[in-house]
Amino acid sequence: MADMTPRQIVAELDRYIVGQDAAKRAVAVAIRNRWRRQQLPPEMRKDVTPKNIIMIGPTGVGKTEIARRLAQLVGAPFLKVEATKYTEVGYVGRDVESMIRDLTESAVGMVKLKQRQEVETTAKEKVVDRLLDLLVPDSSAWDPESTEENDRKQRTRDKMKARLEAGELEDRLVELNIEQRAVPVQIFSNLGMEQMDVDFQSMFEKIMPKQNQNRQVTVKEARKILLEQETEQLIDRQTVNEKAVDLVENHGMVFIDELDKVCGPSSSHGPDVSRQGVQRDLLPIVEGTTVNTKYGSVRTDHILFIAAGAFHLSKPADLMPELQGRFPIRVELTDLKREDFLRILTEPKHALTKQYAELLATEGVKLEFTRDGIESLADFAFDVNRTMQNIGARRLHTILERVVEKISFDAPDLDKKQLTIDSAYVRDQLQAIVEKEDLTKFIL
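The structure assignment produced for this chain is given below.
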């Protein structure tokens, strides 16, 4: 998927997200430029930096979803963070370098998953051998001087293997030695462990005593435990770490939400550790620096940063000039119209109406949304967003939940298993709430 053209990327995003063509085109070009960079000669490749993007638009119009779907599409390590949870270095709170450590953790998980798939066949063969050792304890000990005894053990082992593969022994109990590590890492988590030496946590895990415990488990449970143990032994940790660091450096994506909340003039009443301070710390990360992680040093020069914010009370020009320069591409996402709500309810691959229909199908209830029913849902969502706070497409969740609430509650006990949600039903469920004077008391 990494060599998809911008047109193909946009077409794929269209399956899940309605509208916002400008934002989709911007991210599609950014991803294609990564592929183009890989085709360049090495001496030029290191000088080509990603063109970071700022998405400007109200909540619920698709900013986060575009970035998340994009990362899934290209199989890149992806991290979504809120700018508001960081503080300037030296103050209580998370420092911005921790986002690169979190991204590296995500990449390690991706590489490990791929490595697991590669060694799975070998690991399963080893698991069968270990299970046979548990079921027929002496069958693996061969006597070089007794051929007859060896043949007898082999026949016993083969018979047991056949029964094991046929699934006849799944409930048989075996005694398994399970290693448990007592690592009270959580004790330190609120003390800013990420700000300590990055190797301290690894060292702490190594010096903690390992606890071995013998447990009686079924063959079915033992298979899962042994598969985990064998897989871990077959995976080369050093290779995983190297591949993960390379994946982060060349394909990593960080989505920084709520950037507008750390925007604005610095306070004259003291240090502004959550605004200007965060911007100052964010600048070297976006420009390109080296962050030490427990998996190795990670350079951030070619990580793609996508920032987003509503920018109601501030504007991108209020950011530090140096930081503005590191986000050269700005795209505005538009408010959702009635037609957009209509498309959101019907077009995406897993549209909300399809989700509710499939959920209730598990109870044997066939739920059908008529065209005029969907239009009524779109009308209510658009009107409530216009008259109250505009929360974008998230309004559809609250409206649909209210409409389907009674059906969801009664579904297991319904005699009539075929139901239709039309315009009259939608109005019946929602009109009473919309007409109330104090709307804030209700789910809408």
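Interim note for the steering committee: DSSP finds 17 helices and eleven strands in the chain. The radius of gyration is 28 Å.
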